[in-house]
Design brief:
Layout (H helix, E strand, L loop, with lengths): L11 H7 L5 E8 L3 H5 E3 L10 E3 L2 H6 L3 E3 L4 E4 L13 E3 L1 E4 L6 E7 L8 E8 L9 E6 L8 E5 L4 E2 L10 E2 L14 E4 L8 H6 L3 E7 L3 E8 L7 H5 L3 E3 L8 E4 L2 E2 L1 H4 L4 E8 L1 H4 L2 H6 L6 H7 L8 E4 L1 E5 L1
Parallel strand pairs: 3-6
Antiparallel strand pairs: 1-17, 1-22, 2-7, 4-5, 5-21, 7-20, 8-15, 8-22, 9-10, 9-20, 10-11, 11-14, 12-19, 13-14, 15-16, 16-18
The structure holds 2-acetamido-2-deoxy-beta-D-glucopyranose (4 copies).
Amino acid sequence: MKFPAANCGLVLPFFARSVLAGATYSLSDSIVGEGFYNAFTFEAIPDPTNGRVNYVDQATAQSLNLTYATSNTFIMRADDTTVLSSSGPGRNSVRIRTNNQYTTHVAVFNMPHMPQGCGTWPAVWETSESNWPDGGEVDIVEGVNNVEPNQSTLHTSPNCSVPASGVTQLGTAVYTDCDTTVNGNAGCGVKLTEDYNSFGPGFNNIGGGWYAIERTNNYISIWFWERGDASAPSDATSGAATIDTSNWGTPAAYFPNTDCDLATHFDANNIIINLTFCGDWAGNSAVYSASGCPSDCVDYVDNNPTAFTDAYFQFNSIHIYE
Ligand SMILES: *[C@@H]1O[C@H](CO)[C@@H](O)[C@H](O)[C@H]1NC(C)=O
Ligand SMILES: *[C@@H]1O[C@H](CO)[C@@H](O)[C@H](O)[C@H]1NC(C)=O
Ligand SMILES: *[C@@H]1O[C@H](CO)[C@@H](O)[C@H](O)[C@H]1NC(C)=O
Ligand SMILES: CC(=O)N[C@H]1CO[C@H](CO)[C@@H](O)[C@@H]1O
């Protein structure tokens, strides 16, 4: 990062809370189209959240067309043709992790489409898998069963929370303690209540949009702009070589460092994109039935492959700035 706007230790607590600082950054990684295969590693691992999923490796994903790239787009989907045996593995899907790690940075995700459907649980997030939760976790986009809006959340080691009031953000805080050992690891989440097109079918109906994260040692901000939103900052939407986040307006979610030393609760993180089914959140029977989805989550996922035709991510680009 260059030119941090609020750099003075003495004034920081005041400014971090009342002023959304912002800074300028330069493009360091531009991930577009076939470039996703170089930037990411496929993780064919058992889903840690007990999903009804079978994460496949890159060769399998490409041969089954679960990932598909051209020079300017990347698609990542789940199997939508196979009826599953209830005693066999879950639905084939994909989980990818960046080869590069990032500390203070900005990432802009230009996404025309995200997975939708009953039982789906898509996520775009950042963590250090080998050092969780001490290395921190930021869930940028995450939700289940098409229910919008959804939320952006931090999960950390103890002694990290967000203020209960006085935070300038468009969304609505859920819990304030980010510690994974409290509230059943719910984390400190902010629902993107300002925009019901931020997730699921609403997002896809408008051609999606841009999610962005800015992580500094003073705050973590998340923005969402709908496609066609005239107020979306042109440096973010055009993939400019340099950006200035001080012009990006009030974030959807804002996590200041007032009650959390972000520098010690977050280390170098990878970006991870995954699509699972059911599992600890989407398949929780109360959550699943409250979303108006039919039958039982695992039965539905096993027996209705065509319900997952729209269970895919499409990315125009991911731009990283440092
Ligand atoms: C693979 O998926 C892409 C994107 O949905 C589609 O355009 C293409 O036709 C598919 N290829 C095959 C061989 O099915
Ligand atoms: C909790 O974090 C604060 C800074 O946010 C620090 O001053 C304090 O020493 C920490 N407490 C513990 C027990 O680590
Ligand atoms: C992705 O994996 C992480 C942890 O392994 C989990 O927190 C997240 O909810 C998962 N989501 C999906 C869609 O697999
Ligand atoms: C986990 C979570 O907060 N999911 C929520 C997504 O948004 C809907 C609508 O506000 C909530 O009902 C869900 O609980």
